[in-house]
Amino acid sequence: MNILIAEDEKAIANSLKKNFLAEGYTAKLVSDGAAVISSLENENFDIILLDWRMPKMTGLQVCKAIRESGNNTPIILLTALSDVSNKIDALKAGADDYITKPFNIEEVFARIEAVIRRTASAEPVLHCGSFSLNLFTHCVESGESSLKLTEKEFALLHFLVSNKGVVINRETLFEKVWGINYTPGTNFVDVTIKNLRKRLESITPGKCIKTVYGEGYVFLGD
Q1: Phi, psi of 56 (to 5 degrees)
Q2: If pLDDT is split at 50, 70 and 90, which confidence band does 124 have?
Q3: Going by DSSP bridges, is the β-strand pair 47-51/75-79 parallel, antiparallel, or unpaired?
Q4: Which residues pair with 5 in a beta bridge?
Q5: Of the candidates 125, 149, 147, the residue with the CA atom closest to the CA atom of residue 136
């Protein structure tokens, strides 16, 4: 699951991202409303966490702009405002849910899952040719078979599948999957790719992750 976090309070933003990465999700941080609009023009997200009070554009203004553009990505507004009138304004602007600060991270996860269930026409599944990825269970499914991946294996496969046909270098994978800067000589990516390939071969024929020597890895599913 790819999450856009729009929050100008660095401590809150970094805490959210850290927790999402720990669960195997990918997350992007932006700190103002204009950056949200720009990010949506260049990337697809499964859900948006949108702070109400941000520079340049408020969360409410951003929410309205997103909906007016025809983008239906689920949105959860984050705010210290707790009046019923504020919640009504948020929902009327197109938000799918509303979380009042301070919040518990478990509540955030629960509300994200609830919003995804409500807004999805079917169980969120990413199809990849001969198999599919279940974004809730973190399983690879092929026919009647199902394979549970580790958090990092799933996050890595999800990122490669989401960028099908694009060669992704190790530096990018370190940043997007592990949330850390690349250190030459470390082999987290290579070891995880090796294990992931071996596990995928047990459930689906063919090799879908190709090594492009000197450049990185690319997903070449059907």
Answers
A1: 75, -55
A2: low
A3: parallel
A4: 29, 49
A5: 125
